[in-house]
Amino acid sequence: MSKLILWGLSALDFYQHGDFASLPTLWLDIAHQEDIAPNAAAVQYLEDRLPWLSKPFHVIVPSRQQKRNLKDARCHVAEESLWQNCYLRIEQGLFAPSPEIAFLQSNWSRDLAEVIFKGSALCGTYGLTPPFDTVFNRPALTSSERIREALLAHRDIRGCAMTRRAAPWILNNAASPREAALALLMTLPNHLGGYHFARPTLNYSIELTSLARPLSRKEYYVADVCWPAQRLVLEYDSDERHLTSEQLQEDAVKRMALQAMNYRIITVGRLQLNSVSETRKIALSVARILGKPIRFRIGDFDAKHKHLRAAMGLPCWQ
């Protein structure tokens, strides 16, 4: 059976939903391998092994001569920088490029706001279990720094231009899609629909001082979205994560401990994040604490803001 190497969109689909932690990495010289030409049997094998992977499947071939016209697969010719490279072995005969390369490949025809959000998801500490997309914790697949390194090493990949525009705005360490969306709404520039505040640190570890330790059994807390210098924290309070009275009590203790250290905490609920007007109220509170008045540099900010929300899967409730 021929080997299949996932390309761009399909590789990202695997990384978003698959278990990659223990997969081996192999060096492949795909330019000189005859068996990297997809056929119907290989495509069926891919579907059997990864039934949740979205169709059509996107796969890499070394040259135009090895492209095939198949029902559920699209072939993409590998750029020269990928001919000799490391690939992750998913299953026997199934491979994927690194998360950074898959991200570059997938960006040649995407919207900039979507690319930034997808990049932040790739650099986040969560995955999504198919088919219901329940969030689970895991190590980050990559980082914004490694994406920039891939841009330098693989300049011939078609998606580099769009990725280069997105790279300065990609955030590391988001713990959920909506946490990433909240941070990007606050930090992206006005022309992309954001409020353009200074870049925060996501899931920032705050060690408790002697003033706060009597209030809590913990030595530190992790703040969802934090501006450490200004001692401002945004906490996203999702319905999915806070279900028990014990968790609610723990959240209250966390707030008291951080407030004892002069942190100001803004809690953002699911319904608030779903609402355009409520999000603006949050932004006004952030602006006041950061000492940065909101001044829109463009006339169509509302349209750009709604476009950004749509790209991140957020409603535009009023």
Automatic annotation (TrEMBL):
Gene3D superfamilies: VSR Endonuclease (3.40.960.10). It comes from the Bacteria. This is DUF559 domain-containing protein.
